[in-house]
Write a structure and sequence with these properties.
Rossmann fold, binds 6-O-phosphono-beta-D-fructofuranose, alpha/beta, seven-stranded mixed sheet, 344 residues
């Protein structure tokens, strides 16, 4: 057997751990493993090279991905899917493991329907892929958010300031809610729950009256908040191949900070955590999850079970059909949002 492995979409810590697991399991079976570089672009353009044991050695703890990544959408340009399928044949790939979020896995589902024997592994710091409780990279991202909130608490308290912390999350508030819960946020704004700037300000004033002369407000970059006008036109100017706008360019964090300062009179600063959330070494949770998922993916291939995505459900690693997860999004459980609210 010869299998190919690729990483697509936004990078997260834990990708290298997954690549290592795929390769090591496959080597144990006596198979060959080829690296497909820069996501689906590599399959389309034939940027495919054999991986040796040495290539996947010493990478477990490293962030990023040794294979590179891109947001190439093979469904966008006519002919790209065919090129990818031809290259899979040309390089003699018996199967492909695609490690990615909803976009990468969506393309994987389409290619599988067109005859590519493939399986998917879910990774995204957004944690919004359906069918799995957690995606690779989420735990590391929320750990970074919680650590940042710990640091921001002390300086906010020392200066009696409000600090608005903008975190990533293209459609959902997983990072905001879990990171905010773990880091003791005083208010969390997410796309799942409509809120207004008036509510936030009232809460901050209430805290002040109780003697809490500082507040940490966490906001998911995709949140829509009544009375807050963001720069949607600027964000729309730059779209990727999947049509995603640049959410960071909406300027939500700074806009909210200005609005809070104007309405409450309390000095308010903002921090945009941005790509820090995707950097560094993976946490223990992500290393173990990536390792379990990588090994499981190869076992799926061995059983000839293609068109499946590896998933974590409860404590068990299992698999779900790729087509069931495509074009869907897992929103934050309202119970988790309520839990976070309890500590405002
Ligand atoms: O999908 C993962 C994600 O990190 C989102 O949270 C964020 O909106 C987006 O990617 C940022 O992508 P880029 O790598 O293009 O800055």
């Amino acid at each position: 057997m010869r299998i190919g492995v690729l990483t697509g979409g936004g990078d997260v810590p834990g990708l290298n751990a997954a690549i290592r697991a795929v390769a090591r399991r496959a080597f144990e079976y006596g198979w060959e493993v080829y690296g497909i570089y820069d996501g689906w672009k590599g399959l389309r353009d034939g940027i495919i090279k054999p991986l040796e044991r040495a290539d996947v050695s010493g990478i477990l703890h490293r962030g990023g991905t040794i294979l590179g990544s891109s947001r190439t959408n093979l469904a966008k340009k006519p002919g790209d899917m065919e090129k990818a399928l031809e290259n899979a044949k040309k390089f003699g790939l018996d199967a492909v493991v695609a490690i990615g979020g909803d976009d990468t896995l969506g393309v994987c589902a389409q290619l599988t329907k067109r005859g590519l024997p493939a399986v998917g592994i879910p990774k995204t710091m957004d944690n919004d892929v359906v069918g799995t409780d957690y995606c690779i990279g989420f735990n590391t991202a929320v750990t970074t958010v919680a650590e940042a909130l710990d640091k921001l608490h002390s300086t906010a308290e020392a200066h009696h300031r409000v600090i608005v912390v903008e975190v990533m999350g293209r459609y959902t508030g997983w990072v905001a809610v879990m990171g905010g819960l773990a880091g003791g946020a005083d208010y969390i704004l997410t796309p799942e729950k409509p809120s207004s700037i008036a509510d936030v300000c009232e809460h901050i004033k209430r805290r002040w009256a109780m003697g809490k002369k500082f507040s940490i407000v966490v906001v998911a970059e995709a949140a829509k908040i009544a009375e807050v006008i963001t720069d949607e036109a600027e964000a729309e100017k730059r779209k990727d191949e999947f049509g995603h706008i640049r959410l960071d360019l909406r300027g939500l964090g700074p806009t909210i900070a200005t609005a809070i300062e104007e309405r409450t009179g309390f000095e308010t600063r903002f921090v945009v955590l941005g790509h820090l959330q995707r950097g560094g070494s993976p946490t223990v949770f992500d290393r173990v999850l990536a390792t379990r998922m990588g090994v499981y993916a190869v076992n799926l291939i061995r059983q000839g079970k293609f068109g499946r995505m590896v998933a974590l459900q409860g404590d068990k690693i299992t698999d779900v059909p790729l087509e069931e997860i495509a074009d869907k999004r897992k929103a934050v459980d309202p119970e988790l949002i309520e839990l976070a609210q309890l500590f405002y």
